[in-house]
Specification:
alpha+beta, Thiol Ester Dehydrase, Chain A, two-stranded antiparallel ribbon, 2 domains, 5 helices, about 290 residues, twelve-stranded antiparallel β-sheet
Length: about 290
């Protein structure tokens, strides 16, 4: 159940529109161990999309390039921090406060603050870039595109996710989640192959949806951690996206490194296309086990 608030409460400054909503939690929003991260990411992905429309002054998020071809907001990175998903249960009222801003000509970042009865239970940041497919191309042939009708970009926060993602792509960061980012990635690292289901894992635009990447990491964790933590919950997670697959293509989750102790499991995974080894995403996760 979604509880609407007045339109006046939804808007902050014009360059960073906000949404404030209360969700009554039930089975669709919950998992075995509390708040469902899969549901949450899908819901926040939709909020991000709607906030982009609001930022552009549109009623619906229908974006097109100069040739009339559809343009989509593909997620480049996501970050979950300070999460206490295990504390949430049936009939809790989850408050979600979301805002968005442009950080470059093609990228936008949204932040979603989560609370129950005034107590913070997590924060999620999403960074997206506008992309379009090449003519006749599939999900391997997308390119970034800049759109007009938006306010000028603001300077990205130096401690924000967009800046972190840029550092990682440029190789300027030494460590993340305690892992040495310059350590060689052994070709013999354990791998878990997945055959994504078009009916379950792809979105309406035909892309493997960003929340599916996270679900695949959790499946790999269940496999490689020896099925030892059926009620594991996310405390923090960063995922950086690099590519996508077409329906019918398989992917691999490589278990690059992990540490376990004192009720915590930390791991680093690489997702790649099985056919050509192209890098799709890198995920860093801290879980309570």
């Amino acid at each position: 159940m979604n509880v609407a608030v007045s339109p006046e409460a939804l808007l902050s400054e014009a360059s960073a529109p906000a949404l404030h909503e209360i969700v009554l939690l039930g089975m669709p929003q919950l998992s075995l161990s509390g708040l469902s991260e899969s549901w949450l990411l899908k819901d926040l992905g939709h909020r991000h999309w709607m906030l982009l429309a609001r930022l552009a002054g549109r009623a619906v998020p229908d974006f097109r390039d100069a040739d009339g071809a559809p343009v989509y907001a593909a997620f480049c990175a996501l970050s979950v921090k300070d999460a206490d998903f295990a504390a949430l249960g049936e009939n809790d009222r989850l408050t979600i406060v979301s805002d968005i801003s442009r950080v470059s000509r093609t990228q936008s970042a949204s932040r979603h603050r989560l609370s129950v009865a005034g107590k913070p239970v997590g924060e999620v940041e999403l960074v997206s870039a506008f992309v379009r497919r090449a003519s006749g191309g599939g999900n391997h042939t997308v390119a970034r595109v800049a759109l007009d009708a938006f306010p000028p970009p603001t300077a990205p926060r130096t401690d924000g996710l967009a800046s972190l993602a840029a550092e990682l792509r440029a190789g300027r960061r030494e460590r993340h989640f305690g892992f040495d980012l310059h350590a060689a990635e052994a070709e013999t690292s354990a791998a878990f192959e997945i055959d994504p289901c078009p009916a379950q894992d792809f979105n309406g635009a035909g892309f493997l949806y960003f929340s599916s990447f996270v679900a695949f990491v959790d499946r790999a964790e269940w496999h490689f951690d020896g099925r030892r933590a059926e009620r594991a919950t996310t405390l923090a997670r960063d995922v950086f996206f690099h590519g996508n697959v077409d329906p019918g293509e398989r992917l691999r989750v490589r278990w690059l490194a992990a540490r376990r102790g004192e009720g915590r499991l930390v791991h680093r995974c690489l997702l790649e296309r099985a056919g050509d080894g192209a890098r799709l995403a890198e995920a860093f996760t801290l879980r309570a086990v």
